[in-house]
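In this section we walk through a basic example: taking a raw amino acid sequence and producing a predicted 3D structure, encoded as discrete structure tokens. The instruction is simple. Fold the sequence below.
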Amino acid sequence: MISLKHISKWYMVGGKPVFILKDINLSIKEGEFVSIMGPSGSGKSTLLNIIGMLDAPSEGSYDFLGQSVFEMKEKHRTDLYKRYIGFVFQSYHLIDELTVYENIETPLLYQNVKSSERKAIVSDMLDRFNIVGKKDLFPSQLSGGQQQLVGIVRALIARPKLLLADEPTGNLNSKQGEEIMDLFKKINKEEGVTIIQVTHSEKNAEYGDRIIHLLDGRIESVSEKSLKNV
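The resulting token sequence is shown next.
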């Protein structure tokens, strides 16, 4: 599904390159759950943003579903992102002026889904995730865990093949975090959604099938999950 070859990212400072990522080679199969770990500044979020097509590498190639991402036109790349990728952020990134219903509906508007179909899809997701009673509330009226759940539902509503999560439980308490990670595992196992998460948490990382350890912009090690039945 994903093939990264010799991906590097740098910024020029004082005429010299400062590397954020250096020679990353990584393949991820469809249906995998992969965790990316590493200290602050190791390049985790930059790598996730490149996979999510929100950023471009300084060099290297990226194939997604057999297509060379950075050789295609921007419009094609944007369409690919909207169709196949969902993003979950640590800080939720909900739109304050929109209700829960409207926030969840937003990706379908981008895809020009008809009004009647949008209504049916959103209603189904609200029911499935037990948040029908929250649909008319605004983000400021929700707890952190509820906001993150809405963010996940919004990311899933367009039925992405790939879900990217950047520190998805970073602003949640331990119980809320566990509920979110259990939900990710369920989505991965029951629906076959490929998940790549960036996390500082050893416990959260263990939900993945593989753990990629980054250090100073390089892949330091790759380990298989030790807890097979989390």
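Looking at the output, two observations stand out. The chain has one domain: 2-224. The two ends are 25 Å apart (CA to CA). In the next section we compare this with other chains.
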